[in-house]
Design goal:
Layout (H helix, E strand, L loop, with lengths): L2 H21 L6 H4 L1 H20 L2 H6 L5 H13 L6 H28 L1
């Protein structure tokens, strides 16, 4: 694993944990009225995608179960189509996709630290 990969993976983990904290005890409908919650989730998802984009091809190839292209694609969509963000997609990403990726990232980091 390249030196900066560990830093980027930690950034991804931290942002994913932030997402979990942001949505704890919340409901999808709150994204309609709580702009700060929506912005916080979008920003954290952008950070995850930006960090993922910087992870080396080598590390990505040994973690093929992590959907790297989809993560980066989501970041690109949020950054470039900021005027057309779908709150349902953000909620699904925050409640389903990010928790799954977080498990994968933590497992990989644990494996790397014990190697």
């Amino acid at each position: 694993m390249h030196n900066n990969d560990e830093i980027r993976l930690r950034h991804m983990i931290e942002a994913a944990e932030d997402v979990q904290q942001f949505i704890a005890g919340r409901h999808r409908t709150e994204l309609n009225s709580d702009r700060m919650l929506l912005f916080a989730l979008v920003r954290a998802i952008e950070i995850i995608g930006e960090a993922a984009n910087k992870v080396s091809d080598e590390t990505q190839s040994v973690t093929r179960d992590i959907p790297w292209k989809a993560i980066v694609g989501m970041r690109n969509r949020l950054i470039h189509a900021y005027f057309d963000i779908n709150a349902d997609t953000v909620w699904m990403t925050a409640t389903v996709e990010i928790p799954a990726v977080l498990v994968q990232l933590k497992a990989f980091m644990s494996k790397m630290s014990s190697a």
